[in-house]
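Work Package 3 (structural annotation) set out to generate three-dimensional models for the target panel prioritized at the project kickoff. During this period the team completed the workflow that converts sequence records into discrete structure tokens, so that structures can be stored uniformly alongside our sequence database. As a representative example, we reproduce one entry of 236 residues exactly as it appears in the project archive.
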Amino acid sequence: MFESDDFFTTFLLRAAVRMAVFVLIVPIHESAHGLMAHWFGDDTAKDAGRITLNPMAHLDLAGFIIMLILGVGWAKPVPVNPSKFKKRRLGMAMVSLAGPLSNLIAAFLGAAILMVIASISTVSEVSSLEISKGMSAAQIAAELLYYFVLINISLAVFNLIPFPPLDGFNILRSFMPAKFDMWVFRNYGTIRIVFIVLLILSTHITELQWPYMYLTGLAQYLIWMSVSWIPHLFGL
């Protein structure tokens, strides 16, 4: 959105946002799972201390490293006991959906704040507190928010991929027969390794990225369209 000749500055901004996603957004994402389970009658996550904003409680080392490198990743799965749900399938589906939904809500809020900052800057034409080779404070804030929105959308779409340990798999699993669960538990380690290999290969084989890129692009379009009315409040 904002061009910068300083590649190193841009790299640091991206790294800062990815760290911020882990510190701020991942705990919200995982706590959303636990809260939804609590609302459906299961306090397993609550008793395990997983409804918390402490990022270390949700740390999965492999998922964290991949998030720093690729901008998408995963946290330690929130423990859930579906037998405590009155409606097991609906409960599992809603608990799994709560995490990606929290990312989309965060993306919407970030996009809305970005639109407000951009609108105020355009109206006032003020560029105070010049730093980093002419980048203003408003530009720094806007660029951070822009990456914040993109990473949240990417995490939402990524987590809906139907592979363990991602939420999309648990949504799929909630509608599958018990035999499917048994097969998954027997082969969980192999399935996870296959997924990580496919993820690494996708960085070199662009065809593997097409479904993900299409859905991410669609989600981005919908988010930005949902806040496109904000500049009109400032007469733009």
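Residues 7-233 form one domain.
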